[in-house]
Every structure is written in structure tokens, then in C-alpha cells.
Amino acid sequence: MKLPRAIRDSTQIVRATLILVASDSVRGVPSDSFVLFVHPAAVDLGAKSSILRDPFLAPDSAVIHVGFTDTVRIEITNILRRWQADTSLPRSLVLHQGSDFPFEGVTLAEARFFSSRAALRRPTLRLTYVPRLTFAP
What is the pLDDT of residue 128? Predict the structure, then answer.
């Protein structure tokens, strides 16, 4: 994701929402659900990008239920604030399917979203920002 330099350098990000449009209903066992985690990428290698494991930056997430066909909105404000602070990090996100419980078995649920190639339904980022305040000494 490319953030314009004017936003990155001279604003304070108040809220950032990743919007994903489902291309089909979520498949899986009825009444099942899973958590969709959003992590910043440590290195941008396309489909084989690794997740940045940072103890101070918890992954953002949304709970998705089987049969769900609506748009998924995930708050990623902390990730974008981290990108503002450290310009050496790649501007890539990794979506990871997990469960509510760390020791739970696998889920058969599957969610599919439109890619960036779909002009009208591509993933979007909604930003709310304000000018950065500077105080004179």
C-alpha cells in the first residue's frame, strides 16, 4: 500500500480501516466461525511474505462467520501508525486465518475476497487523519 508522502510525513492518523469485499459467501461447516488476522509483512516477497512478529504490535482482526457475504472491515490504525514511525518497513499486509482459541484444531472455513485487479471491488483503505500539531518552544 502506498501512503502519499504528505499524509505519511505531516499528519496524525486517527483511524484506518481496511475494507475487503467478499467475492462469495464464506464456505465451511454451518455455525462455524474464524478470526481473520491482519499482520504487517516483515519482508514483501509476494505470496511467501513473512509476518512481522512484534510484541508491541498486536495483530488486528475480525470475526467471520460461515455464510457471511457482507464486506469485512478491519481496523488497522496501529499498523499504519507503525509505518509512519518506521519508514524502512514494507507497506504490505498479510491476512492470516486463525481461531479464537490458540489450541483449537483447524477450521474448514474459507473466505475469498476480490483482488486488487477488480476495479470496483478491490480492497480499499479508509483513512481519517488530522494535520500534525507542532508546538513552538
Answer: 94
Q: What is the tally of structural domains in the chain?
A: 1
**Looking at the DSSP assignment, which residues form a beta bridge with residue 36?**
62, 97
More confident call, 107 vs 73: 73
CA angle (54, 55, 59) in 5-degree steps = 65
Answer yes or no: is 11 within a domain: no
Q: For residue 68, which amino acid is it?
A: F
DSSP 8-state secondary structure symbol assigned to residue 46: G
Structural domain contains residue 34: yes
Average pLDDT over residues 88-116: 77
What range does the domain containing 108 cover?
21-126
Which residues fall within 8 angstroms of residue 91, CB to CB, at 6 or more apart? 1, 2, 3, 44, 83
